[in-house]
Structures are given as structure tokens and as C-alpha cells.
Amino acid sequence: MMNMKKVLRITIILIISLMIQTQIQLSYAAILDTDPSDFQPYSQTESQDKELAEKAGVIATVVRNVGIIVVVIMIMVIGIKMMIGSVEEKDKLKEMMPIYLLGAFMVIVMTWIPSIIEKVVNQ
């Protein structure tokens, strides 16, 4: 029973992380100023490619920074609850802490992976 709860929580965290990544792509598509019917994949210039990469970089940076802020606030709240909570609450929070840390790790890593790949490709 306890393992099922852990699996369920990890699955929820993975789904939320994938939703965040999908949202980045949707936001990226929303900032394009061109009409979709004018799309010609082989007629783009380097300046358009750079502009597109810059916009995507800004969005990824914003998502990463917001994610880090949320993670830090959640860890602070958990720490305060652990300091002022009862023994039972502390045990419950200790059980939940690895899940929060895994989620924090995933939020940070999933936003840094595209920037790392971009840097490697551009070198």
C-alpha cells in the first residue's frame, strides 16, 4: 500500500513535469508573429532563427527561475513545519521530503537540459 502511494506520487510529479515542458512549447508557439499559412520551412534566414532561439531561451529562463522560486519556498515551508510540528507531523514530512526533492530536481534539470544541449550544439 505504501509503495503504491509512492508510485502514484512519483507518477503525478512526472506528469506535472511533462505538462510544464509542454507548456513551454505552447508558449514558444504563441510568441510567433507570423501567420501559419505563410510558413515556408526552407526560406528562413539566420536572423529569424536567432530571434526564435532568443525567444525560446527567454521563456525557458523564466520557467526555470519561477520553478526555482517555487521549490525554495516549498522547502522553506516544509522546514518551518518540521521545526514547529509535532512528532507525527515531522515523521509525515520526512516521508514526503524525498518526493519534494525529486520534484525540485526534475523541475531544475528539465529546464537546464535544453540549454545544455543548445550550448553543445552551438560549439
Task: Describe the fold and architecture.
This protein has 123 residues and is mainly α. It has one domain. It is 85% helix and 0% strand. Helix 1 runs antiparallel to helix 2. The longest helix is centred in the middle third of the chain and has 39 residues, at 46-84. It is elongated, with a radius of gyration of 20 Å. It starts with a helix and ends with a helix. The relative contact order is 0.12.
* N-to-C span: 49 Å
Largest pleated sheet: none
Mean pLDDT level: 76
Q: What is the CA-based Rg, rounded?
A: 20 Å
- Helix-strand makeup class: mainly alpha
Beta content comes to under 5%
Order of helices and strands: HHH
Helix amount: over 70%
Q: What is the number of independent domains?
A: 1
Helical stretch tally: 3
List how many beta strands DSSP finds: 0
Uncertain residue segments = none
Global morphology: elongated
Summarize the structure.
The chain is 85% helix and 0% strand.
Keywords:
123 residues, mainly alpha, 3 helices, elongated
Give the arrangement of secondary structure elements.
Layout: H1 2-30, H2 46-84, H3 87-122
Helix pairs in contact: 1-2, 1-3, 2-3
